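Reviewers asked in the last cycle whether our approach scales beyond single polypeptides. To address this, we selected a multi-component target totalling 280 residues and predicted its structure end to end. The input consisted of the following lines:
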Amino acid sequence: MTGVILDGKGVAKKIETDLSQRVAKLAARTGGKKPILATILVGDDPASATYVRMKGNACERVGMQSQKVILPQETTTEQLLAEIDNLNANPDVHGILLQHPVPPQIDERACFDRISIEKDVDGVTSHGFGRMAMGERAFGSATPAGIMRLLAHYDIPIKGKHAVVVGRSPILGKPMAFMLLNEHATVTICHSRTQNLPELVKHADIIVGAVGKPEFIRGDWIKDGAVVIDAGYNPGPVGDIELSAILERCAAYTPVPGGVGPMTIATLIAQTVEAAERAA
Ligand code: NAP
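The resulting structure, written as structure tokens, was:
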């Protein structure tokens, strides 16, 4: 059995085509106004700058605008909160992306939680997370919501399956686990204090790697026929799962690159368009 490639790049392209049409329709009925995503980049981490640029480029591809806020490394929590307040109050801004991580002196959670729920298109607020976990309408955290879109696109069965999520970060592992639970998976969440990790992974029908360590999850931990989702992105580039070892015996897998990454951006943009449609 050769695993089906869950082609995030291709699916993201299709989503962008659809979004271009929605943006054009929205502009037609709002006197030419286009959805605007505000991106906030704090400090000089080159990887973060690249991610923000990629998100701005995606906005352009679908005919949206992005408003870039760039703040110095020494920015305080109060200064960042004030920027977020400005963007919350600006009716032309439909979505706010605060690029993670911010410099260590900043209270990132307080800043995420200041983003108004209507503009939380990256799905980072506690309020949005709580609503999502309760099955209420909310913008999902972009990476796990992108993974859910990808699974839906390929009709991957989730109900009743055992999903093992390795990682419990607020933007990835934790919301991923609740999204899978909402779709009736039985979910095991693993983290750095988990014991017998290989043994737990062996039971996974769906395995999600969200650890941040190159090829940390070994191929021989994964059972035949599993659906393998690798959210990791490390220099190489390789993911958090030893994908080369499972290509011939999994049911489906996300390639690295070209799997989860493009879906994250497409989801962020889609949620911004949705926010603009609601605002209009
Ligand atoms: P993170 O905040 O560093 O969280 C890593 C998680 O892995 C933590 O929950 C940690 O457990 C767990 N972990 C660390 N060592 C472990 C071990 N030995 N055994 C089991 N679990 C362990 O990272 P993140 O932001 O969630 O990102 C994870 C990966 O996804 C990274 O490769 C990142 O580049 C990638 N990512 C990709 C996208 C995308 O769009 N493609 C977006 C975001 C992130 P504790 O909680 O116990 O510390």
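The chain has a mean pLDDT of 97. We regard this as preliminary and will revisit it once experimental data from Aim 1 are available.
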